[in-house]
TrEMBL record:
Pfam families with a match to the protein in the record: Pribosyl_synth
InterPro entries cross-referenced by the UniProt entry: PRib_PP_synth_CS, PRTase-like, PRTase_dom, Rib-P_diPkinase
EC number: 2.7.6.1
The protein's name in its UniProt record: ribose-phosphate diphosphokinase
Keywords: ATP-binding, Kinase, Magnesium, Metal-binding, Nucleotide-binding, Transferase
Organism of derivation: Brassica cretica
Presence of keyword Lipid biosynthesis: no
Family statement drawn from the similarity comment of this UniProt entry: Belongs to the ribose-phosphate pyrophosphokinase family.
Amino acid sequence: MTFPFYKLLQTQGRESIAAKLVANLITESGADRVLACDLHSGQSMGYFDIPVDHVYGQPVILDYLASKGISSDDLVVVSPDVGGVARARAFAKKLSDAPLAIVDKRRHGHNVAEVMNLIGDVKGKVAIMVDDMIDTAGTISKGAALLHQEGAREVYACTTHAVFSPPAISRLSSGLFQEVIITNTIPLSEQNYFPQLTVLSVANLLAETIWRVHDDCSGDIEPFSTLGID
């Protein structure tokens, strides 16, 4: 069974914590172990009373980027907000320790973001924007516009979960991005495809993880860290 376990944490006072409810529902339904991919907040694992294996879509996206043959000297990894710095830093380390840039923004309301300034240098670089999910694409598209203003040669968007709430498609296909790279953790309807979109499968990543968990396999063949597994 799969469940879209993102955006379920408390974001303001007196708001219910849906993550705990979902954890209880899954447990009471008879599950004895959970495999999660790129939780929006890693703390969600603490709501479960059963074992949780947390994997990241990062290795799948990294393999694809490596196949494109972009020179490491031309790359800069960009976090679309301050909260994603740790994720972007880990991503940059896997890309030959590429430099890091951060988009500083102020949020004025739910799903509304305003870009303020850029921390770091992107002039003449291929900018790789990394996030765990894209919802309405407001944050990442405004960030991409800022990167172009600051002289970025090309901008790529990389994310694990493509929620794509309106008007995400129009924003992502507006020409700001050289390519939008996502995984298939969330099924995407045909009408939401656009020319710049690339969808990568996480099937092998999840299958390998399930096999290792089932066989109680350690790192004899390959370290768990190479699969992005907590």
